[in-house]
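Email to the structure team, subject: tRNA1(Val) (adenine(37)-N6)-methyltransferase model.

Hi all, the expression group asked for a predicted structure before they design truncation constructs. Nothing fancy, just the tokens so they can compare against earlier work. One-line instruction: predict tRNA1(Val) (adenine(37)-N6)-methyltransferase, return tokens.
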Amino acid sequence: MSTFSFKQFSIKQDKTAMKVGTDGVLLGAWSPIYHNPFSVLDVGAGTGIIALMLAQRTHAEQIDALEIDEDAYEQAVENFESSPWGDRLFCFHAGLDEFIDEPEDEYDLIVSNPPFYAEDYKTESEQRDLARFQDAMPFEELVEAADLLLSENGIFALIIPFKEEEKFIALAKEAELFPLKITRVKGTPKSEIKRSLLAFSRNEVSGIEIDELTIEIDRHVYTPEYIELTKDFYLKM
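Reply from the structure team: attached below.
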């Protein structure tokens, strides 16, 4: 499927190995925006889906995305330009290390669905493997960038494998970024927790909001919570 249609925008994905997936949609719909971010940065944009979801959800004037893979970068630009929010969206063709060399701006919301590598996971496509491989963007580098680029009252949100949650929270704490909200995600009521949605800020809070989200009750029968989270985006929700 080379085009994925949402309620207010479409994603072309014929050029890139990174297709629209549940992780990106979860992060785009879940990321906290109660602080009315003026500027947003999406690190590792892929098709641009998370930036587009945040353009739909917020009034942010400046939504920047960063993508190192040339095909994905071109695809994100194309998706931004054909969306209703083209004037607020901009994609940089650069790696995180280049981008933080000369930081121009601070961001009120930084989001990332970082590439990670599941054990024993190799596909026939080297490009896709690179995109999934954590070496492409180590967690340390991501935390360092968030620390450098996050505005004083900003929020840094990401989705990672649940098994990495503890390690990531410890890394963030070293940079004085503290968890605000944690949502642990599982596919079905009986399956194990697979993902963690994490939101951090520079201010330590006493009551971290922690909850769990189950996606499906049965194959293609979605839970009320998942429908509530994604109904502004998915056509059939």
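The mean pLDDT is 90. DSSP finds eight helices and twelve strands in the chain. Ping us if the truncation boundaries need rechecking.
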